[in-house]
Design a protein that fits this description.
about 280 residues, five-stranded antiparallel β-sheet, C8orf32 fold, Immunoglobulin-like, alpha+beta, about 20% helix, 6 helices
């Protein structure tokens, strides 16, 4: 088990004063069966009244409006979280049993349909179906599919953008964790395995020194349902461990961006992001 302190600063700079902005932040983790939030807080500049709630998919949301002229918006999320590993445990379920069980719950049914972000390239469809045909156990097939996608796509920044879809990233065989997660989701859903997008943080150093603050970034991985929900990080080819801090889940990135907003004004905006992660224990 690790204790991680996360400071995530983001926001917008405008090319002049905007008269108002309306925003949602999904930057604070929640407690689960594998992580416990010791403290969390959100600072907003300029100051604004915040409405906090849990959205449809179970993610903590801070909704706020800035109704006075401003040229910059800065949000800082600070969290201290205890995290334990979440190793994969395959449940004994057949493909027929998975289909029957998945069709009974909204939670799983909604994670079966493709979105514009996850719709798979024909080559990904072929790979997923070939792997699934080799396994009697859908959980083991899911594990093999996520590993195959992670092996096939190289992590590289600057190739895709925040609005890129899985098909585009697959053609390049390059992308960031968001792209790799979308490709994986498309492959899993194609063979009838419910799968969801997970947003959070990953401490970049497995053997992190206690007390050393290191640069980090938002991270994405996947979870699939095969009798129980299981997680895997296809970008790094690893199970979900005590370096992963979960913030939210959804059908794809569109459901859980760290910051989303609109503003009143004729100016362009620039998004800035800085994440620092410190191992405390």
């Amino acid at each position: 088990m690790k204790r991680l302190r996360i400071e995530h600063t983001t926001g917008f700079s405008y090319q002049g004063d905007v008269s108002a902005s309306y925003n949602e932040a999904r930057m604070l983790p929640g407690s689960t069966d594998s992580q416990f939030v010791l403290s969390s807080a959100l600072d907003i500049e300029p100051q604004a009244a915040v409405n906090q709630y849990v959205d449809y998919f179970g993610t903590r949301v801070a909704s706020f409006d800035v109704l006075s002229p401003h040229s910059d918006l800065k949000i800082t999320a600070r969290s201290l979280v205890e995290v334990r590993p979440r190793p994969i445990e395959h449940v004994d379920v057949t493909w027929h049993g998975l289909h029957r069980e998945a069709s009974r719950s909204i939670e799983t049914v909604e994670q079966l349909g493709q979105t514009a972000r996850t719709r798979p390239h024909p080559e990904v469809v072929e790979i997923a179906r070939a792997i699934a045909s080799q396994h009697d156990h859908p959980g083991r097939a899911a594990h093999a599919i996520t590993e195959a996608v992670g092996d096939a796509v190289e992590y590289m920044q600057g190739i895709t953008g925040v609005h890129s879809a899985a098909e585009e990233a697959w053609i390049e065989r390059k992308g960031v964790c968001q792209d790799i997660a979308h490709i994986t989701l498309g492959a899993l859903r194609e063979v009838g395995i419910p799968a969801r997008y997970v947003s959070g943080y990953l401490h970049p150093r497995p053997e992190a020194v206690v007390g050393e603050a290191v640069p980090g970034e938002s991270h994405a991985w996947v979870e699939w349902f095969a009798g129980e929900w299981q997680g895997f990080d296809p970008t790094n080819g690893i199970e979900i461990g005590d370096r992963h801090v979960l913030v939210g889940r959804g059908r794809d990135y569109n459901d859980i961006p760290p910051l989303r907003g609109v503003y009143a004004g004729p100016f362009k905006s620039h998004l800035h992001v800085k994440v620092t992660i410190t191992r405390e224990a």
